[in-house]
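Sequence design from tokenized structure. All designs in this work follow the same two-part layout: the structure record, then the generated sequence. An example of the structure record is given first.
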């Protein structure tokens, strides 16, 4: 009623009744319905085509990934999917050209450097120089890994809550990316499979030594 009174200068019951009667006799707007149905059909066809292309690309990626020696072992790491594994492997290339996993970290721009510019003077940050796609692939894989990989989730929690030099979330993720690179390096280089329990025991051993 308030809308009725606001929109019309002279609202009346007679005019309201006339509008109601007109609405009852209306069959709605039909112009353009055929064109709308055709547009929706075309969108559905395009969607199905894109889905098919994506599935074909994923199958090709999987075939190429499995051609790389020991690359299938990466799929045994909980949280590492076929697509992320393919991105990381494609960016790393031949593992035999690296003598140490730190070289891969440097290539990804995840090596540490001292930032002496502006307000961050003297602060240690990652260089962000190198292959952006590799760096982004490592960061993105950490999201499902922290959700599904018990060992990496435990390490992340320890990084955040340890008494000496606790890390913030981003620092911990960067550290975990470095650990993942070292694991990938060994798996590709030596053909070993992922062993989460050994990873935890190695960490416990290093803490006792420290």
């Amino acid at each position: 009623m308030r809308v009725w009174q606001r929109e019309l200068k002279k609202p009346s019951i007679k005019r309201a009744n006339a509008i109601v009667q007109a609405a009852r006799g209306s069959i709605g707007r039909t112009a353009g319905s055929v064109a709308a149905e055709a547009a929706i059909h075309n969108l559905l066809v395009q969607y199905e085509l894109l889905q098919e292309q994506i599935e074909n690309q994923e199958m090709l990626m999987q075939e190429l990934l499995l051609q790389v020696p020991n690359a299938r072992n990466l799929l045994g790491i909980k949280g590492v999917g076929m697509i992320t594994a393919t991105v990381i492997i494609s960016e790393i290339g031949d593992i035999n050209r690296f003598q140490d996993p730190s070289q891969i970290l440097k290539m990804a721009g995840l090596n540490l450097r001292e930032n002496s510019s502006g307000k961050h003077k003297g602060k240690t940050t990652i260089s962000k120089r190198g292959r952006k796609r590799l760096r982004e692939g490592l960061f993105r894989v950490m999201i499902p890994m922290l959700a599904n990989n018990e060992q990496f989730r435990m390490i992340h929690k320890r990084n955040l809550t340890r008494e000496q030099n606790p890390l913030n979330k981003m620092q911990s993720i960067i550290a975990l990316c470095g650990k993942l690179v070292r694991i990938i390096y060994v798996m590709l280089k030596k053909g070993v499979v992922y062993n989460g329990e050994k990873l935890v025991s190695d960490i416990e051993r290093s803490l006792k030594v420290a």
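The chain has a mean pLDDT of 79. We note this feature because it recurs in several other targets discussed in the main text.
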